[in-house]
């Protein structure tokens, strides 16, 4: 398969220009994905042309400036951007349609925004998860 | 453009037997090879706890000291992981869907 | 003219899935459709932090109740690529066969729902009668009707013996002739065509630019099918993507009808070339690396982005499901359509909301 993750690391300022260039060259937006890292959110923009994949990677520092929206170039990006805003709490500026956090109706605001605290995950999991196999004596 | 294109099919099925079974009056025949209820053979089990460790949903509990084995039927997803991992072949998946679990407690063997 | 907002869903008689759209209507015309999702957001992507990477196959498979097998397959392919596992060829072929069976049952389900949305109840029943024959084969070979549970990291968990294969191929002939009778109604009947021809047209450029995938894209004339990537056994099988050029609802229906017979053909080819040997390899260690896997589901291209850091839990698991990519196109075709056509248009992209929200 030809889907090695080769990523081009870019900065937020040149994102829109790079994306516009890709669109003019006939690439299709496949997805935008976000990964929570300890001190930043890593955004991966994937594009496809003739079943080849190109990826752009961007780091959104927590508390840093917002990320420019690419929905002016690819209108369909608004779905991914609203999703990333609602789940990860990343500020994205200038979305074609801004749902203002109402795209996903979740009980917890920005559910994916927290980094996994290695120690804190356990007790919370025990409560939320379905009954775990605690040894019971009959 | 066609008119009455379903007529032939409708007539054919109006004259033949229905494909559905009259379920509560006619019991469902389990499909051979289906993954249904998990069956446990108490005689061969050595209470090694492997099945409980392998179960992805945590449906099984093994009490080695008391020689007891238990399953939470509502948690079991009939995946068959425990069946594959049991060294004594004490577990099997029967094709029948079994009885409906109505309480949330474990069934102890 | 005064504008009214009509909520469509989350519960709607035509769709068994909780899609929610706010339709802004002027008279009987829809001016704008605003989606909101999250009605059934389950946070499955977050669950990787609790389940180890092998157990997660079961969760990946449960993302969707209809294209379940291909979800599990894509997940396994991604993990296998990261771990560099030599998956035996027989496992690849079996995955291909089950994947195509799942496409058959998914498309037949869609045809039935489509007939139901048009108000053609008897056609709906006939589609599902044929689908039941496919489900019987699936249940006999994998043990589950819609959740197959046969894919695991490193291969598959069940084999299909030679006698079973012969029986399946015989049954497949019957299914094929049944499908011919049904698709004839969908493609020829006046009442069906009246509801679908010229409704919800997406041009080739629009479809490509809006990022459509699967039958929605191919109905607009773009010949793109992720099976051409050659994953599993597809690099050894012959097939051409089914395309149409009109881009309307009828074209999307015709593409799916065409794909039914394509799947039957692919299953026959795969059985004819089915190699012998093992069906799984032993898996040790933990994955470390990153991979983006893409496969073709009944609804279109699915993208799995996996990031592993050498522990037994993945760091990030992200799924972009086909319906998510098709939603922007749906919003575009809904603009300016008749209110009565909304259910039909929503159905033509074959929405699967459960997997969209994960
Ligand atoms: S793995 Fe088998 S032998 Fe061991 S406890 Fe479970 S059922 Fe008993
Ligand atoms: S079949 Fe699967 S879910 Fe059920 S008890 Fe066995 S391992 Fe657990």
Textual characterization of the structure:
The complex is a heterotrimer of chains A (138), B (109) and C (358). Chain A is an alpha/beta fold and 138 residues long. Chain A has a domain at 4-93: Beta Polymerase, domain 2, CATH 3.30.460.80. Helices cover 22% and strands 26% of the residues of chain A. Chain A contains three helices and six strands. Chain A has helices at residues 15-24, 77-88, 121-128, and strands spanning 7-9, 28-36, 40-49, 52-61, 67-68, 92-93. Chain A has a four-stranded mixed beta sheet with strand order 1-4-3-2, with helices on one face. In chain A, strands 5-6 form a two-stranded parallel ribbon. In chain A, strand 5, helix 2 and strand 6 (92-93) form a beta-alpha-beta unit. The model of chain A is unreliable at 117-138 (pLDDT under 50). In chain B, strands 2-3-5 form a three-stranded antiparallel beta sheet. In chain B, strands 1-4 form a two-stranded antiparallel ribbon. With 109 residues, chain B is an alpha+beta fold. Chain C has 358 residues and is an alpha+beta fold. Chain C has a single domain, classed as Cytochrome-c3 Hydrogenase, chain B (Orthogonal Bundle), CATH 1.10.645. Chain C is 47% helix and 14% strand. Chain C contains twelve helices and eight strands. In chain C, a hairpin with a 2-residue loop joins strand 6 and strand 7. The longest helix of chain C is centred in the N-terminal third of the chain and has 30 residues, at 89-118. Chains in contact: A-B, A-C, B-C. The A-C interface holds A 1-5, 28-31, 33-36, 44, 46, 51, 53, 55, 74-76, 78-80, 86, 97, 99, 102-106, 111-112, 116, 121, 125, 129 and C 34-39, 41, 43, 45-46, 49-50, 77, 81, 208-211, 224, 226, 228-231, 290-294, 301, 303, 305, 307, 315-316, 318, 320, 324-325, 327-329, 357. The site of one iron/sulfur cluster (SF4) has 13 residues of chain B, from helix 3. One iron/sulfur cluster (SF4) is lined by residues 38, 55, 57, 59-60, 71, 76-82 of chain B.
